[in-house]
Fold this sequence. Notes:
Layout: E1 2-7, E2 10-16, E3 32-34, H1 39-47, H2 50-59, H3 73-86, E4 89-92, E5 99-107, E6 113-122, H4 130-143, E7 149-151, E8 155-158, E9 180-183
Antiparallel strand pairs: 1-2, 1-6, 2-3, 4-5, 5-6, 5-7, 7-8, 8-9
Helix pairs in contact: 1-3
Amino acid sequence: MHLAVHSGGRMVYIEKLESPSAVRMASRIGASVAMHSTAVGKAFLAGMPPAQRAALLADLVLSALTPRTVTTLDALRLQLDAVQASGWSVDDEENEADIQCFGAAIVGGHGVPVAAISVSTLRFRQKPDPQQAYVGAVLRAALSLPGCDVGFAPPVLRWPSQPAPGWKAPGWPQPQSQPQLRRR
């Protein structure tokens, strides 16, 4: 897992939880990564207020890091729309070949992202349904940070005092109190 913050039009890893397996990613704390090709970058961009996002997008250089990297603003905007609708992002081998990542923005008290978190998987070691296997873990990790929400308007996941009747999501544990979808 990676925890990253925005700095100078890029995302910087400030924490990393390594896999216990022998094969690991080459990322490191302090590394600066592109916003348009990473799950943390796309989650952060999608959560930004529209005017700030537009200004940042106008200055981004959309370099191809792999054959799958999005290199046009129109394609990136479509991805960001999907992130806003779902509350989570994906890097589908766009930053590094054979690595897929799922991310979510961590939103502070003012409703804007303060960081983003992602889980990275190696294709050869991936679970059969990676979206179901990893998205819940990312959202749970983001929700576990004190004083922060995950996602952004319109949908925001929060742990309410009273769960919504019958609410379930794949990959989420079913604690005594379940997450409830609310609108800001």
